[in-house]
Amino acid sequence: MIELFQEYGQSYLYSDGAGLSGLAMTLWLFIVTTLFGFVLSLPLALARVSRKCWLRWPVEFYTFVFRGTPLYIQLLICYTGLYSLEVVRDTALLDQFFRNALNCTLLAFVLNTCAYTVEIFAGAIRNIPHGEIEAAHAYGLHGWRLNLFVVLPAALRRSLPVYSNELILMLHATSLAFTATVADILKVARDANAATFLTFQAFGIAAVLYMLLSFALVGLFRLAERRWMRFLVPARG
């Protein structure tokens, strides 16, 4: 264990000047993926529950594809599959984008978590009591104002418990980044194991780091639920 920390402790936790540490890279992947996935999912969730077929069906197809196939396959398609297409190699912008392993990893992660988040938020939108919508109409809120000031805030609050599970699963899914040679926690653990043959210690440290990050997320969401879901708690007589 001491040997492992001496040789690879810096790679797990600290930057060595050549790039991010494994922990920092995992956090960076998670934060960027979550941010883009969350922003993209909001308009797509509204389209998912729209009565207009031309809005609803493309989003439904997108979520069906990305929820119905493994993230690992999606990552491989983004990392190696798309670059094998001649049209991608012949287009300067696409060629530059898909040459970068980190770009491919982020693309796969964002598309995957966005698909799940869309369905979470769409389900929360459907479960908003009709009385709240009628009250908003009575105040003169319609169209985008209704969605922005009533529908989305109410849906986001109600979806907190389910959304927290999706973020924890996404945090764990970032461990697939090693497939694209991205130096995250698992990549560092694999390198440490290959060099020292201390398998239990190498992957044990990685497991502890992922567990600590998961507990931190659970704690943050519990605080958020206490603050923003207080209105759902039945009043005591």
TrEMBL record:
Compartments in which it is found: Cell inner membrane; Cell membrane
Keywords assigned by UniProt, alphabetized: Amino-acid transport, Cell membrane, Membrane, Transmembrane, Transmembrane helix, Transport
Residue ranges of every copy of the ABC transmembrane type-1 domain listed in the record: 23-221
GO molecular function, one term: transmembrane transporter activity
InterPro entries to which the protein is assigned, alphabetical: AA_ABC_Transporter_Permease, AA_ABC_transptr_permease_3TM, MetI-like, MetI-like_sf
Entry GO CC: ATP-binding cassette (ABC) transporter complex
Keyword Coiled coil: no
Record's keyword annotation contains Transmembrane: yes
Domain of life: Bacteria
Membrane-spanning segments: 20-47, 59-85, 97-118, 167-186, 198-221
Major localization listed first in the record, in broad terms: membrane
Recorded topology in the membrane: Multi-pass membrane protein
Any Gene Ontology biological process: amino acid transport
Family according to the record: Belongs to the binding-protein-dependent transport system permease family. HisMQ subfamily.
Subunit structure: The HisPMQJ complex is composed of two ATP-binding proteins (HisP), two transmembrane proteins (HisM and HisQ) and a solute-binding protein (HisJ). The HisPMQ-ArgT complex is composed of two ATP-binding proteins (HisP), two transmembrane proteins (HisM and HisQ) and a solute-binding protein (ArgT).
Protein name (Swiss-Prot/TrEMBL): Histidine/lysine/arginine/ornithine transport system permease protein HisM
Species of the source: Pseudomonas brassicae
Lineage: Bacteria, Pseudomonadati, Pseudomonadota, Gammaproteobacteria, Pseudomonadales
